[in-house]
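Section 5.1 Outputs to date
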Amino acid sequence: MLKTITLNGIAWDHPRGYEPLKATSAAFSKIHPEVNIEWDIRSLKEFGDMPIEDLIGSYDLITIDHPYMGQANANNLLLPLDNLIPSYSLEKLKEESVGPSYQSYNYDGNLYALAVDAAALVSAYREDLILKLGLNIPKTRAELLDFYKKIPSSHKVAWPLCATDLWCSFLTICAQDGGREFMRDRTIDNRLGIQVLDELKIQLEYLHHESIKWNPIQILNRMAEENEILYSPFLFGYTNYSRSGYAKNLVKFGNSPTNPNIEVSTILGGVGLAISAHCEHPDVAAAYINYVAMAETQEGIYTKNGGQPGNLIAWQNEVNNGLCNNFFANTIDTMNKAYVRPQHMEWNKFQEQGAELLHNGLVKDISSDTIMKKLNQLYQSI
């Protein structure tokens, strides 16, 4: 009789986050009947903010955000995958990466996770309402400002600007206008930061008044169930809402508005699957992670069960594009030009505190130069 090996994993609280992992775990266990994989779920905010140290003692498999790589490396929190997964498999996955997703989990020569899920800020829109009103989706941020003025009072544009998402939008526009190196020596270019904050304050005047509180899921739920919000220029995309039958109304996705003068789209998101340094069965865990990340799994069972794959073969699959109303084809340009956040050890601490600082500044309408001064002082102190 085979001895059962149980792996415990921690996913995040959305069907995109846990359904494909449950489905791939069941499929993996059919191939390896001695392996049982069980999943717990944490909130989206906990996924972005909860320290890995709080998870590695309880879980073998951890879904993770790529900016944690420096912290994981410095404190030996995750197992490097380079010695657990054959090099030919990793080379293949690197070639099949959606934009910089694969490389974003590499730090100091060690690969700490596989990009099983790929995302960046994209735009979302109700195509039926846009066509009815004869509007054109803005391609640049200048066009976005004109777009607001063409919308009748019965409809709104919404932009997720809760602290976490405001931070991602701020960094996105900084990168669009200042290039990928707008941060140097733990300092954000001051003049650029002030310019971006001033623009965000102007944008707020046109947006749904709840935008400053909302995250992407809240906006997408409203877009899918009601007819008020017809467009969101910058949010993390979710293929679920572009699938027929998922919600009352179909939400389509495309590239976010950009600065046409600089070859940067938006900030990279997505999810990596990592192995805790405390895992007692690392070879089994690595075999499962490799199984989830491989093209055959990603373009098949992973996507079919609500997943948003990190493998390019799955993004190019015609069946998957049909299933998701061309979500993948319509946003691949954004993925290929995405901006990758820093990954040094204290980045997550700065990210969490900096996001709250920015959000508080916008809510209280503090001057942009004061906000930037405090933000850079915070970065230097960390």
